[in-house]
Each structure stands twice: as C-alpha cells, then as structure tokens.
Amino acid sequence: MAQYTTRILFVLLSVIINETSFARICNSSGENWYSVRWWTDKEIKDTKCLGTQPTWMKERKDILGPLKMKQIFLPGTHDSASYNENDDRASIVSDFAVTQDLDILGQLIHGVRYLDIRVGRYHETNEIWWTNHGPFYRSVSLKTVIDQVKKFLDNTEEIVIIDIREFPVGFNNISDHHALATYLEDEFRDYYLPNNYGWGTTLNEIWSSGKRLIIGYENMRIVNSHSSMWPYVLHQWGNVQSTEQLFRYLDKIETSDRNSATRPRSAMAEMTADLTYILFNGLTSLRDMAHKVNLNVTNWYSTVWQYSANIVAVDFLRSTDIVEIAIESNENRHLHCRY
C-alpha cells in the first residue's frame, strides 16, 4: 500500500468552541479563535484553526452552482445518528455501535452535507420512529434528527442530503415504509425538493427552487409512489478489517469508470468490526478503529483521490479533516477543470 504523508492532521480532543453558531467560527485574521500548532525544536511548521464550516457551499456558489451532486466532493458521515447523547460507554454494544461524537446539528455546522440515517419502527414507545445502528442499538428519536436538520436549513442556505436506509427493526411490510415516508413528508413539508428534479439537477437549480433538502430512500417502491423520496445514494462499502484492505477497496472504486453513474455514490471510508478482529487487535470500540484509519483517509483523499471523490462518509468526523479536504478539492477541480 502506498503511503501518503503530505498532509498533517491536527486533532484536539478537548477544546471549548461554540459549535451551535451558524457563522463560521474561525477566521485566520481574527484574534479570538482556537488553534493547534505543529512545531519542531526550531520553528512552528504550521498553525491550523479549529473551526466550523456552516456555509461553505453557499460561499462557493459560483464554483458549485453549475454542477450536479455526483460531480461534487461532499463530506458525509456513516451512521450519522449513532451518537451517544449522554457520552457514556456502558456496554460493548454501544462501544461498537456509536460512530459519531457530534449530534446531527453539530455535524452539519462542521460541514457535513450527507447524512446516513438508519431507521427503526417501535410500536411500543411514545416515539414510533427511532434511529438505529443495526437491530440491537437504538440511538436517538428520528424527530430529534428532523428538528436539527430543519434548524440548520432555517439558519443557512446550504443543501443537505439525508439518506433513509436499512430499516433494521419493525419494518415487516410495505405499509411500514409508506407510513415512514408520509411522516417524513409531513415533517419536511416546507423543505424537501421533489424527486422529479432528479439527480441530474444542478445546485443552481436547487437553490432557485427554494427547497434545499433531498431525501433519499432505500426502497424503490416508495420512491416511485412518493414524490418526496429520491433514489438513495449508492453506498460503496468494502466490509474490510484493515487499513491495507480499506486502501485497496477505496482505490478500486475511486479509479473505476464513474461517468455512467446516474446518482451520487458514497465511499464508506471506515473499517467494519468483526469478533476476530476485535479480539486479536485489542480494540475496545469503533472509535479506536476510526482513529486507526482516519489519518490515512485524510491523506488519501487530499492527494490521490481528490479529483475522483464524490461523497466520502466517515466515522468520528472530527478525527478526520474531510470537510477541509472536500472544500479544497472542489476549489482545485474548478481551477483545473477536473469534473
């Protein structure tokens, strides 16, 4: 496997910044901003702001406006709603189910524009719809996700894709899917773009429509019967257990012919836990696995795949630099006409 060390990833695990502001928290010319530095005995090599990117798409409307979603590098998260509201790690189930350390609003403010949402239906609770990671881990209510997405859209002019998929609990027949689609339509009535626009729509056309939410749904019968639901984003999932295997899989999908794609695709840039890997590698959580690969993912997508990437979905967003990489890549593609 090739090694790429051209980019330094700065990670600060504990810093107090206002993560609910809809204005960017970092301006390199400002005085009150948090940063980390890389230095040697002789000199400071680099300084990086620890900031947010709540409006990065609209700020680059002149670059992104003429493009379609499949032509843009979009930062995303895997199992976006699998975060722990109480920040406790009480069991091995949660250790290997929690994939994020920011809630949905925090992810969007940090620059994520693709959300991977797995939904379960629970008839015995007051809230029927919940987010899941597999059948054994229920995270937060779907209403929590919806309210945070709406809050973000109300306060910015960004475009967001929310992908509804997997349905690991409580979906026994097509009527369950219709019920969920109807619920999403009701909740997002003033926000969603109808699917007759299609994935060939440019961002300028989306902005002009006044509707900036695209809801993907992993059931084509529902897509065909609900104008609110779009064909889901293609997940490219390697199901791998090592950094070397992940590199080989991502290299394969990023160097294949992508011109025939009719919808966006998401490179799922994380490893998959299995019992053997956990036992023989001494890992205690998905966070450990993410930290094992995220620096590599950052380097790979800032170099060899910066011109090929579409959506890149990661675990534990803040241990990557995928948002800044996506922004820089989109700017570089514009400068070098690489679409």
Please, could you describe this protein's structure?
This protein is α/β, with parallel strands linked by helices and 339 residues long. The protein is built from twelve helices and twelve strands. It has helices at residues 56-59, 61-64, 92-95, 104-110, 142-155, 174-187, 203-209, 220-225, 243-254, 275-281, 286-302, 322-336; strands spanning 35-39, 44-49, 74-77, 114-121, 129-132, 138-141, 160-165, 213-217, 229-231, 234-237, 265-268, 311-314. Strands 3, 4, 5, 6, 7, 8, 9, 10, 11 and 12 form a ten-stranded mixed sheet that branches. Strand 1 (35-39) and strand 2 (44-49) form a beta hairpin. The longest helix has 17 residues, at 286-302. InterPro entries: PI-PLC_domain, PLC-like_Pdiesterase_TIM-brl, PLipase_C_PInositol-sp_X_dom. Keywords: Signal. It holds the Pfam family PI-PLC-X.
Any low-confidence stretches, pLDDT <50, length ≥5? 2-17, 28-34
- CATH arch. level architecture: Alpha-Beta Barrel
Enter the CATH topology name: TIM Barrel
Q: What is the number of helices?
A: 12
Percent of residues in beta strands: 15-25%
> Helix fraction?
25-40%
